[in-house]
Amino acid sequence: MTVLATGVSSILLLFSLGCAKQFPSTFPLSHYTRGQLTGETSPAGDRSFTLPSPIRAKVEETLDQAFPAPWTWTNQSELSVEQKTLIKGQQLYQQHCVHCHGLSGGGDGPTAASLIPRPRDFRRGIFKWKSTASRAKPTREDLVAILRDGAIGTSMPPFALLTDDKLNAMAEYVAYLSKRGELERQLLVIYSQEGSSQEELLANGESISDADKEDLLELIAETALEQKEVITESWQEAAESIVEAEDPASLGVPLDITSKEFEASVLKGRDVYRGDAGCKKCHGEDGRGVAGLNGADAVDLWGYPNPPRNLTLGLWRGGRQPIDLYRRIHEGIAGSSMPGQGSNPKVSKKDIWDLVNFLRVLPSRPELLSTGENPSPSVASTTNH
Amino acid sequence: MSKWSLFFLTVPVAGVAIFAAAEYIGWSLPPVQSTLGREIDHLYYVVLAITGVTFIFTQLGLAFLVSFYARRRPAEMESANPIATMLFWLIVPMAGFGLLLYWFPMPAESRLWMGVSLAVGWPLVLSLLVSGRSARVSSTAWHLHGNNTLETVWTIVPAIIFIGLAIYQYPTWKQLRYPKERPVDVQPVRVIGRQFEWRMVYAGRDQKLDTADDLVVANELHVVKGKEAWIDLRAMDVLHSFFLPLHRVKQDAVPGLTIPVWFDSLESSWEFQEKGLLFEEEDLLDPAGLVAVIQSASDPASAFLKEKIDPGALQLRASSKTLVAAFNALLALDSLEPLAADSDEKPLPLELRQLAGTNPKGDRRRLFHRKLIDRFAGDYLRPVGRDFDIVCAELCGWGHYKMKGRLFVHDTPELLAEWMEATARQQEVTQ
Fold it and tell me: Has the ipTM of the complex gone over 0.90?
C-alpha cells in the first residue's frame, strides 16, 4: 500500500511540476572555434575559443541590447507591431523550427546532427535559396517561399497549411535571428583576432590588463552600434538586389515544352552545359555529380559535405520554377562552390535560359547526357520530383 | 461475492460506458465522404457488433464464475453447474431484456441509456442478491479435466464467424484492391511521400507525367466531386501511410513500389465548408485589427449581418467599445452604446463567434458562417480546419504532423482544370 501511495504521489508530483520549458533570460552566446571565427587553421588544429569573462559579459550585454530575446517582452501594452510579430514568430519558431534550427538559429537543434544536409545556420546571414544576388540577403518573400514549399531533397518540410501571417511572422523571426547571429559573430571576431582565449590566459597564467580591457570593451560597444546599422540595412535593401531576368520570349527561348523550338533550346542548353558554362566539371558528363571532389569544392561555408547536385533527380531545392533555376545559374549558390554564370562573359542571358530548359527536361530524359560508352540506365520511371 | 469478480465486472461496464459515450466525446468515426467508405463503415460496425457483444458477455461470464466458485466449498465443486446457473440468472434475463428493449418502440436515446443501465445494473443486482452467502476459498489445489465439447464449440463458432466475415466483406475488398480498369479519361496523380511532406505530381498541359511541365504541389491534392480519383502512390525515403480519414482511404507507400489507389468524393470541399467553418482560439484575433477589417467591409456584409442579427440583441452583446465601434461601422448604426468599459481585449472575438450559431456537439471550436468569413477574411479572421485532411498514418501521423495535407474536392471538372491551369501558369513564372 505504501509503495502504491508513493508511486501515485510521485506521478502526481511529476504532473504538477510539468515539463515547462525554461527559457534563458537572453539568447545563449554561440560557441565557435578560433578557426571558425578567423578562417585560419593553425598547425595545432582548431582550438576551442572561450571569451574571458569580462569580455563575454560585455558581448552578451551588447547583443541583448541590440537584439533582445522576444520571450522576455512581457508588457503587452508597450509593444510595437514589429515586436508583436516577433513574439508570434518566436512562438511559431519554437513550435515548428527550433528542434532543427536551434534556439538562436545556429542550425544546431537537437535533431540537427542526424540530418543530411544539415539545417541552415542563420547566423552567417548567408542564405542559399533566394531571388537576390549571391552576396545579398534574401527577401522576406524568399524566406516565406521556402517555408511554404519546403526544400525537396532536404529535411525541410513545407508549411503550406500555415496561414500567410504566420509564415510572415516566422520569416520575420528568422531574419531577426540572422541579424543577431551576424552581429554576434562580428563581435566575437574582433576579440578572436586580437585577444587570447580564456583557455590560453589560464594556461599562461595571464590576465587581461585593465587598460586592454577598457579598450576592448569600448571597441565592442562601438562596433556593435555600427554593425547593427549595417546588418539591418543589408536586410532592408534585399529587395533592391533581386535578380531580374529578361523575358525568355524576347530572347527567342520558348518555355512551353509543346512548342516547336523547345527541342532546339534544350539541345542548345546541353551545349552550354558541356561547353562554356563549365557545368560538367562538377556536375559530371552524365549530370549526376562528380564524386570525390576535394578542398573547397567538397564542403560548404559551414564545413559540411556539399557534393555537386545530381541534376537527373529533378530535386530542385531552391524551387523548380524556371525563374528559380535561372537565378541559381545566374548567381550561383551562396556559401557553396557553385559559381554564378552571370559574370561569365562566355555565357549570355539566352544561354542561361537554354540551360534552364535543358535542366527542366533532364530528369525525364537523362539519355541527353549519356556518354556513349557507358550508357546511363533510364531513370525516367523512378524520377521523384 | 469475491473482490475479483467485482474487478472483472468493471471491464464490461467500462466497455459499454465508453461505447455509449464515444459519439459525444468524439471517439466515433468522422462523417464518411466516399461511396466505398460507406461500405467500409458498415463492415466496421458489423465486426464491432459481433466482437462487442461477445466481449461483454464473456467478461460478464468471467465475473460471474469467479463469484460462483468463490462461494463453494471443494466438496460442492463437482456437483455445481456454473453454466446452467449463469445462463439462468445472467445471460437469459439480460438477453430477454435486451430483445425487449430492441423491439419496444422508444426514442434512440432512451434505448441507449436503458441498455447501459441494464448492462451495468443487472449484474450488480445479482451480485448484491448473492453476496450474503458465505464465501470460503479452498487452499488445496484440485484437478479438473478439460471439457472437450466446450473446446470444440469455442473453436468452431469463431471459425464460422471468421469465414462468414471473409465472404461477407469480399465484394468491398475486391472493389478496393482489384477494381475495374482505370477510366481512360482519368489522369492519375502521382503522390510521393517523403519526410516530411506529400508531394503531388500532376501531368501538365501535355497530359503526360515525367515531362518538364509536370505540376508539383506540396501537401495539396485536388480532385473532382463524384468522379473517381486515381493515385499512383510512391515513397522516396521510408514507409509512409497515405491516409484520407474522411474517405476511409489508408494505404502504405513503399519505397520502390508504385501502388494504385482510388477513391471518390461525395461532397465537394465547398459543400463541406458550407456546413460550417471552424475557428480555433489562436485564429481569433486582435480587436483593433478586426475593426479595421470590418470598417472596410462592403455593403453586402452589413446587409448580411443586419439580416442575421437583431440590433436589440446586439446591444446586449456589445460589451466593449471596440466591439461597438465595429458593429456601428458594419451596420451603419450610430446609436449603439457600450455597456461596459473597454477593459478586456477578449470580448470581441468571443462575441463575434456567438453571432452565427454554435457547433451542435459543443466542440471547443465553433461554427461560423461561410458568408461572414468571406466578408471578413484577412489577417485577423480566418477559417481553419474544415478541410478534408491528408495525413501520414505511420509514425509521421501525429508527432510529425507536418505530413498533414489537404484534399481539395472541386465541384466540377472545369474548376479542377481551372486550378491546374492557374498552377501551371504559376509554375512557369519567368520574372
Answer: no
Give the closest of A158, A160, A255 to B428, CB-based.
A255
Phi and psi angles of residue B406, each rounded to the nearest 5 degrees, phi first? -135, 130
Helices (H), B131-219: 148-177
Per-residue cell: A281: 566539371
pLDDT digits (tens, 9 = 90+) for B312-363: 433 333 333 444 445 444 444 444 444 333 333 333 444 444 443 333 333 3
Structure pTM?
A: 0.73
Q: pLDDT (tens digit, 9 = 90+) per residue, A201-229?
A: 766 666 777 777 788 888 888 888 899 99
For residue B88, whether the previous peptide bond is cis, meaning omega lies within 30 degrees of 0, is no
Q: Do A258 and B382 touch (CB under 8 A)?
A: no
Segments of chain A scoring below 70 in pLDDT: 1-21, 40-46, 195-199, 202-206, 296, 371-385
Residue A59 makes CB contacts below 8 A (sequence gap 6+) with: A29, A51, A184, A187, A188, A191, A220
Q: How many CA atoms lie within 13 A of B138 on its CB side?
A: 11
> Which among B196, B205, B428 has the least Cβ separation from residue A157?
B196
Which cell is A188 given?
A: 566575437
Q: Are A207 and A201 in contact (CB under 8 A)?
A: yes
Residue A166, chain B, CB below 8 Å: the answer is: no
A57 — contact with chain B (CB < 8 Å)?
no
Distance CA A265, CA A282 (A): 23
A385–B216 CB contact, under 8 Å: yes
Q: Which residues of A touch B402 (CB under 8 A)?
A: 96, 157-159
**A323 has a chain B CB within 8 A of its CB:** yes
Strands B189-194 and B197-202: antiparallel
For residue B383, cis peptide bond before it (omega within 30 degrees of 0): no
Query: How close, in Å, is residue A160 to chain B by CA atoms?
Result: 7
Q: Contact B309/B355 with Cβ under 8 angstroms?
A: yes
CB-CB: which of B192, B194, B219 is closest to A160?
Answer: B219
Chain B residues closer than 8 Å to A322 by CB? 428-430
Q: For A148, which DSSP code?
A: H
Nearest-angstrom CA–CA distance, B413 and B224: 6
B233: closest chain A residue by CA: A384
Binary contact (B197, A361; C-beta < 8 A) = no
A263 inside 8 A of chain B by CB: no
C-alpha cell belonging to residue A342: 552571370
On whether the CB atoms of residues B229 and B34 are closer than 8 A, the answer is: no
Q: Beta strand pairing status for B405-410 and B388-392?
A: antiparallel
Q: Exposed, middle or buried, B70 (CB in 10 Å: 0-12/13-18/19+)?
A: middle
